[in-house]
Amino acid sequence: MPAQKAAAWAEAQRLLGHLRERGAEEVEAAILQPAAELLDLYGEDIRARAFVTQDPLRGEMMLRPDFTVPVVRMHMEAGLDPARYAYAGEVFRRQEVDDPQRPSEYLQVGFELFGGRDPAEADAEVFAALASALPDLPLRAAMGDIGLILAAVDGLSTTPTRKAALRRHVWRPRRFRALLDRHAGRVPLPEGRAALLAVADPFIDTGPEIGMRTRAEIEARLQQLREEALAPPLPPEEVAVIDALLSLAAPVPAALDTLRDLERDAPGLGPALYRLERRVEALERRGIALGDIAFEGSFGRTTLEYYDGFVFGLFAAARPDLPPVATGGRYDALTRVLGRGRVVPAVGGVIRPELVVQLRGGA
């Protein structure tokens, strides 16, 4: 409705003013973005929901599904550090079901911080900036840390191939669980793979070669699968650490105690836990009530795959049916990709103005 859209844009301008007061430079990103590179950077969820079109001159293009990737690319090309940006505009995501709470086009207002000497302080600043922009709304806060999960995977006593597969599927909980159970020996190999590996020469009576893969590539993959099948199962105590981490759900202070206990069995969690403790201290200095924030070990695993550290969300306390009002997190690895190997510490978050207006109106 025109009145609702006007109200959302007015709220977006208010939020932009709030972020500009924190030193953010307002920037824009083109609605049409080159698809080839960006589709590889988004997770499967958005990749499947992107609006893609063909331009006769520019090739495959997409309507921006968010601002972060275009802003990161702009920043890395400019090479300016440190920097902070704010933006507002529509994003576009195709929906598979007719759900009014998941529109195909909606507003985002965002805040992105690049560089700086203290990532923990930057994490806390982004969280506090978004939370302080919405003081009149009853919001529930939750946070997590993808870095803890990645550290737990890296600490496993298993092959590099298994670790790489688990890292790749951290953002796909069902696939991650299936792999973890298989590598732990909890479930057998899929029947088809077991039958394939049992054949001495899989190329006998297979007919002519078709497709893009060469015979040498197929043989290399089969050899890799054989080696994986012979690898010993994951130690139960290491799997137990990951299980405990993923099931953790408690207020931040209690979650820290649990994580410190887990570190005794998994010293590899130490660096990620230290970063979390520093972040918590920075939040405390900003007056954030940590006892009111839930720490969830699996938080962020079904969102964008470029988050690789701190992740957070603000939710309408009385409306669990609504999407998050605000979300964000750290994405250092994304700067490495778009910076062609140059890494810049980066963290950001977005607010959905239309949801803010809806909640204020009691809809």
UniProtKB/TrEMBL annotation:
Keyword Transferase listed: yes
Pfam families found in the cross-reference section: tRNA-synt_His
Gene Ontology CC terms, in alphabetical order: cytoplasm
Keywords: Glycosyltransferase, Transferase
The keyword Glycosyltransferase is assigned to this record: yes
Top-level lineage group: Bacteria
Domain (Aminoacyl-transfer RNA synthetases class-II family profile): residue spans on this chain: 19-211
Positions annotated to bind L-histidine: 66-68, 93, 108, 112, 301, 306-307
Quaternary structure and partners: Homodimer.
Protein name in UniProt: Histidine--tRNA ligase
